[in-house]
Design a protein that fits this description.
Elements: H1 5-22, H2 36-39, H3 44-56, H4 58-65, H5 78-93, H6 99-113, H7 118-133, H8 135-140
Length: about 140
């Protein structure tokens, strides 16, 4: 079965969420929490790269997110917070991925895992941040 970045993003969100709930920053930085069937779908190299960037740049990612929020980051739903962190990580550190792909994938994750209208919030925040982090790309509509 084809490995995809979509599944890597999904797993990164699940990993961040589990770390937030457990308070253990190393709890799920590998794919041990996945069923064997699901782990075959994941682009494991990209998952490890994402988790590495999320860990290394956690403070910077949070600093980037904060101005785009209408409340403190600590008050954002933990699922949506994890999705935003993965999205901002990709916007900031993976310019090879078009910002529209990052936003769309994040919105789909919010629809899957988030609150009823969480996807709208994720879309709004990431759109603001894409305009800041990917100015040229957003202007040209690429």
């Amino acid at each position: 079965m084809k490995q995809t970045r979509s599944w890597a993003r999904r797993c990164a969100v699940q990993s961040l969420y589990q770390m937030a709930l457990s308070g253990d920053e190393t709890a799920t930085t590998d794919l041990e929490f996945l069923a064997e069937e699901d782990s075959r779908r994941v682009n494991q190299q990209y998952f490890k790269k994402l988790i590495g960037h999320l860990a290394k740049h956690a403070d910077e990612i949070d600093r980037l997110i904060t101005p785009a929020l209408d409340r403190d980051l600590a008050e954002v739903d933990p699922v949506e917070s994890a999705i935003l962190r993965v999205g901002v990580c990709e916007l900031a550190y993976h310019p090879e991925i078009p910002c529209r792909v990052v936003i769309n994938e994040s919105v789909e994750l919010a629809k899957l895992f988030g609150a009823e209208h969480g996807h709208k919030y994720v879309n709004s925040v990431l759109d603001k941040l894409a305009r800041q982090l990917r100015k040229t790309e957003m202007k040209t509509g690429s």
